[in-house]
Amino acid sequence: MIMSRAAFEFFQYFSYGWFCVGAFTVGFLAIRDLIKMLRKKK
């Protein structure tokens, strides 16, 4: 019971961490592409 609870909490933190990394990466790439588009327009 305790082991399964610890594993569940670990999985929760692990998935949350990957979600943050994925969101940060997507946001970074979107901002970089936006800057490229703005530079081309000038």
Going by helix content, strand content and strand pairing, the class is mainly alpha
Distance between the terminal alpha carbons, to the nearest Å? 62 Å
Strand content: under 5%
User: Measured on Cα atoms, how large is the radius of gyration?
Assistant: 18 Å
The helix content is: over 70%
Largest sheet: none
The overall strand count is 0
The residue-averaged pLDDT reads 92
List the total number of helices: 1
Give the SSE order as H and E letters: H
* Overall morphology: rod-shaped
Low-confidence stretches: none
Description:
The chain crosses the membrane at residues 13-35. Keywords: Membrane, Transmembrane, Transmembrane helix. The protein is an all-alpha fold. It has one helix at residues 2-41. The longest helix has 40 residues, at 2-41. The model has no long low-confidence stretch (mean pLDDT 92).
Give me the secondary-structure topology.
Blueprint: H1 2-41
Brief description of this entry?
Helix content is 95%, strand content 0%. With 42 residues, it is mostly helical.
Keywords:
single chain, 42 residues, 95% helix, membrane
